[in-house]
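Intended use. Records like the one below are meant for learning the mapping from a protein sequence to its folded structure. Do not use them to infer anything beyond what is encoded.
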Amino acid sequence: MDTDHGSRSRICGRTWLGESIPCMTILVIEDSRFLRLALERMLVKAGYDVIAVGDGKDGLLRAQDVPPDIILLDMMLPTMEGTAVLSQLKQDPLTKSIPVIVLSGLSQKNEKKLRTAGAAAYFEKSLLNLNDDGSSLVNAVQNVLAELTGADENLSKRVNAGVPI
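Structure written out for the chain above:
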């Protein structure tokens, strides 16, 4: 991935097509403890390293301290609303290239505005099925990463096969 914050070099111990797969770190910024733990569980099960925080200020500080590969950002947060977090992330040279997927309980009518503000994607919380493996969210994360890395044929096959990228 071509980013200013660098990519992770730690190897997770998994292989695909005979090659080691580097770990990808996802920062989850979500105030609902229940949803934060559920998201963390889904993403860890899918093979990602996850850092989860419960408010906007902590999320912003964590992103600046140890920049993740991707951020899942709730919009309705204590201490600092999601739109302010997104704005500051996109203004900071250290974090501006980190893709942000907005998580929201609101309808997609805000999607265009959020994409203009720098969000890589928009995901409605109502589409999350906490009774399954979270495949809809994992697919959204993989699609954003594939788009940003200029997915080639092998990368597309990995995404379609459910292998973390």
